[in-house]
Design brief:
Blueprint: E1 2-7, E2 12-15, E3 18-20, H1 27-38, E4 42-47, E5 60-63, H2 67-77, E6 83-86, E7 93-95, E8 114-116, H3 120-127, E9 133-140, H4 144-154, E10 159-164, E11 176-183, E12 188-195, H5 196-207
Parallel strand pairs: 1-4, 1-6, 4-5, 6-9, 9-10
Antiparallel strand pairs: 2-3, 7-8, 10-11, 11-12
């Protein structure tokens, strides 16, 4: 099966030297892509800016920086795929008017007006055909189950992988994570804290059990 995977953060420019981003390292997304390659799938990885080496055996690697670039790449690739695993931490907001020159320090505060970026997962949920498998992620600090199930329903997902962030031993930057996988069918699978590479293998074996 041809499967799209997204990974890493995005960057939204404030000026030529500053940007808004998040704490995503891309480790989980890259581990998911690697697990799918090992299982024999054709994998297209769309990656935000990370310091990781690309997994060997990818069908293709598309590097992007902004949410808009990721949206364009993903919507181009998705129609030809049997599934998509949307693990990237895409910016929800971007500066409405990024400066073309460096903003210099001055007296007083700097006020930025932010505008919404495209909700890529929602767009794919509207695009998907019944035979495509769409997987989303929910990284939350509270109300994990409720928020994850709500997101799955709103965005027409087949699976959502929920994990708690803000804990010192897991999540962003860490090599370990725990997760709960919720399926649209009502199936629920719990995965305790473990290395991200092992978690990725278990998740992909669950969702894509055969080539």
């Amino acid at each position: 099966m041809k499967i799209l995977v997204t990974a890493g953060p995005t960057r939204e420019s404030i000026d030529p030297v500053r940007y808004i981003t998040n704490r995503s390292s891309g480790k989980m997304g890259y581990a998911l892509a690697e697990a799918l390659v090992r299982a024999g799938h054709q994998v297209v990885l769309v990656s935000g800016p990370v310091t990781l080496s690309a997994p060997e055996g990818l069908d293709s690697l598309i590097r992007v920086e902004t949410a808009a670039q990721m949206a364009e790449s993903v919507k181009t690739v998705f129609p030809s795929c049997g599934g998509a695993v949307m693990c990237a931490a895409v910016a929800d907001y971007r500066p409405a008017e990024p400066a073309s020159e460096k903003i210099h320090k001055s007296e007083g505060d700097l006020i930025l007006r932010l505008e919404r970026t495209e909700d890529i997962l929602l767009s794919l949920g509207r695009m998907k055909s019944p035979d495509q498998v769409l997987v989303g992620f929910a990284a939350e600090t509270e109300d994990l189950r409720q928020r994850a199930l709500g997101k799955m329903e709103r965005k027409n997902l087949d699976w959502i992988i929920a994990n708690r962030v803000g804990l010192p031993d897991r999540g962003f930057q860490s090599d370990d994570n725990a997760a709960t996988a919720y399926a649209r069918t009502g199936r629920v699978e719990e995965f305790p804290l473990m290395p991200k590479k092992l978690l990725a293998q278990k998740l992909m074996d669950l969702i894509f059990p055969g080539v």
